[in-house]
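User: Okay, second chain of the day. Same drill as before: sequence in, structure tokens out.
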Amino acid sequence: MNPTAHDQTTQQQKPNGRRAVGSSQTWTRYGVLLPSQQTRKLKEWILTDEQQQVVNASGLGHLALTTGFTIDRSLLTAFCERWNNETNTAHFMGFEMAPSLRDVSYILGIPVTGHVVTAEPIGDEAVNRMCLHYLGESPGSGEQLCGLIRLTWLYRKFHQLPENPTINDIAFSTRAYLLYLVGSTLFPDTMRGFVSPRYLPLLGDFRKIHEYAWGAAALAHLYRGLSVAVTPNATTQFLGSATLLMAWIYEYIPLTQPQQKNQNTLLPRACRWNFGGTTRGQRKKVMEWRKDFEQLQLSDVNWNPYKDINPAIVPGYCIAADNICHSRTWLISFNIKEVYVPDRFNRQFGREQGRLYQVPMWARRTWSKGKDWRVEYAREIDDFHQLVGCRFIPSTGANINSLPSESIAGQSSTRCSRNASQNFSMMVEDLKNDLPVIDRYLEGQVLPVEVASFLERVSMMIKTYSPPQSNERKDEAAQSKNVRAKNPRKRARKPLVSEDPSSPQDCGVDRYAGALVPYQASKCDRVLDGTVPLLNRGEALKENEVMDPWQMSHLTAESSSSGDSSLPESRRRRCEESGAPRSNQGVRRSGRMCVQLKMLKHRDGVGAEETNPIFL
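Assistant: Same drill. Structure tokens below.
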């Protein structure tokens, strides 16, 4: 984003009441700011050596060293009053200042170049699905609020690994630690003690975490927090990284520095001013800091605070070229879009300050759960990627909105078992489709009897496998079964020949024990063109399937029961009264359901009675 050449802006007040660009007017707050970040529990988080290596490789490991930073709330409030939310700079007597991308890389030790910190849109209903997918557990109703989850829940569930942890346990715990880390240090929310799970897709692949511009996103949040702080009737909670802002003030304005500092620590620079929460003597009040800032001169500023840094100790992901840090661009982090104008504070880069160019107007957007900010800020994101020399690659993780919705109680084990069953069913279906090809390839091959028997059993298991039903389907099936059982007029289905357990089965290779047999797919388990396999005498049934139903009745006569006990009492009484011979040789007796069939087979076609025999 190239600055447009304009004359130096005037100092008059704008008609709409806002401060003019370049104005030194300040807002006066009527309350002391309260930082939103909470990093106390990070020191109590127990990490293994393997987890610590993952955190260090992610480029966010230096953030853990900045925890416990002492925040001077009076100093923080007095500096925020100097901030201009139209230029994103702090206005002093005749000059402007602001934290830059280079300051973020040195003070916090995190990458400021790479992909923009953004992802697909999420809603409040997707919080449980996202936590289940990336953390293995989902927070309860009391552990989440307005799409945010409590930091205390993350600490309580994942701060220590269980005994004999699995790979998933280590991954879930490490990812929860990183979410706690960025949520409490870089992106604190107005609701203290909460963090948004929208960063989880960016933390899914540990190998690609360092490829995101976390420093640029942290600077965008800091600019937004400063702009909100100078808004009339704004909240007293300070958004953004108070550690970053306090360390930056100490680096550039020596009169604000505490009496002591850690000389041994060079990176991250915030550790020079971190004393673990101990006091540093008498603190000034807000009125005293206001007076000091009103009298601040150019000579009172340290314009080159990093001259003593050894470039050899700076990690590669923290190095940012001057042409990147000194170029106008947009800082993006989901819905937050802030303008970055380093040409208005050239002295921080060792350059002469020229004319002040005008800053483009833009609208600050609030969070909307259904908005895809990658589309809304497509042009700004492309400008940033062109500046840092990277191409935006969407996340290859699971689609958040397509993750299965599960109940809160017992959802972890249920989800794992259900996914495993679905995957196994898909695998069996694939193998079932490949079986005809395998049969054709092995047909005629001479195989040991053990191998042939094994292939026979595997083929049978694959073809007879049926996927397990869910609990809802089981309940529906049981209910329908009860309904059928209550109906007294329903008759039990007679078994087919193929279901007769007494019919002989093809033993396959068992008949050739201890010999080499040629491979041949058995008739009992061969599937042709996706049809139902025919068992034994079903071949005869297949040959006679073109016959009329009454012509095939003799096929089931032998397998049907002929005892009197199988007939209802009313039918036995009518048979005894009629005196008709009871024989099973070519004659079958029936009830009222077969009257129509008897009329077709009667000699005259009419006058058939229930007791008349059927001649086959």
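The radius of gyration is 40 Å.

User: Thanks, on to the next one.
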